[in-house]
Amino acid sequence: MESLELAALILFLAGLGMLGVDVARHYRHRRLQGRVMDRALQVPLAADAAPDDPADQRWWRRAQRGVAALGARFENSRLGKALVTAEDRLLLGQVNANTIQGRATFLGLRLALALLLPLPALAWWQPAGAQIAVVSLCAVAFGLLVPKLVLGALAKRLRKRTDEELPLLVDLLRLLQGVGFSVDQSLQMIGDRFQHVMPVLSREVRDANANYVRGRSRLQSLHRLTEFGNEGLQGLVQLIVQVHEHGGAVQEPLRQFSDRLREQRKLRMKEQSGKLSVKMTVVMMLTLLPALMLVLAGPAVISLVGTVAKMKGH
Fold first, then answer.
1. What is the tens place of the pLDDT at every residue in 74-103?
2. H/E segment holding residue 26
3. Helix or strand run (H / E) with residue 297
4. For residues 52 and 42, what is the distance between their CA atoms, to the nearest angstrom?
5. 73: burial class by Cβ within 10 Å (0-12, 13-18, 19+)?
6. What is the pTM of this model?
7. For 28-31, which contacts have Cβ atoms below 8 Å and span 24 or more sequence positions?
8. Rounded to whole angstroms, how far apart are CA atoms 175 and 182?
9. What share of the chain is helix, strand, coil (3-state, %, to 5)?
10. Do residues 209 and 221 lie in contact, with contact meaning Cβ atoms separated by under 8 Å?
11. What is the pLDDT of residues 182-203, one digit of tens each?
12. Greatest Cα pair distance in the chain
């Protein structure tokens, strides 16, 4: 039995080595192919012709390129489609990484962690018998889940920041419309001048303006704003698109939209405060009530103990 387990472990390590060699060869082939194409087009290679560049020699950049090469190799396979689902693409879109490079890096990171984590897990716990398979499977599952959990946490933080910046975006649109700016001019001003005030939405508006200049429609250019899952932001995009297509004054609809948005935020805050009061009731019962009972009943208990002691003395 132990010989079979040892043979299985050796085969697993041999498979990892063959996969690493294959990935390295694939990455080297792509680099050589890129060099040939650049020489044919007489374009200087900034990354390959400057080996003294310290930024290009950093180990994490090389690791990132290796992970991206691993993900690009398996992206169109069944395994790649199973590990990069529509939900993952939505999360990547929310963090502005739903590109070929971003998807390849995400897939390569999941595969790399799933392949590498079983080795330190086996070395740490040193299981025996059937425990080897259990520890290996748990390590593989952990390696597959960690990148998605981190991506979900980043997307959640961006969604929260987007919800916080949305009222300011509406107010700025109203202000710029009030001084005579058109919708396109207002969006251009917000994308160019308000990066420090609204870092997330200003970046998204700037990217939307760039896509609109390249020839996409206003709805297509603002589509990324609807991927955050924010109902208020989706309503604002629909309002902007309708005004862009049909014309008309937008200041009054923006005012009504801003009022409705603030009412929704007030209702949400009331709901959160109600939930917080219920939670604080449990905390008070566990912390304040014992202290209160000790303060109120403590002197009586001490007096009762003294009285009982005196009665026993007599």
1. 778 888 888 888 888 888 888 878 888 888
2. helix 2-41
3. helix 251-313
4. 21
5. buried
6. 0.63
7. 30/69
8. 11
9. 85, 0, 15
10. yes
11. 888 888 888 888 888 888 888 8
12. 113
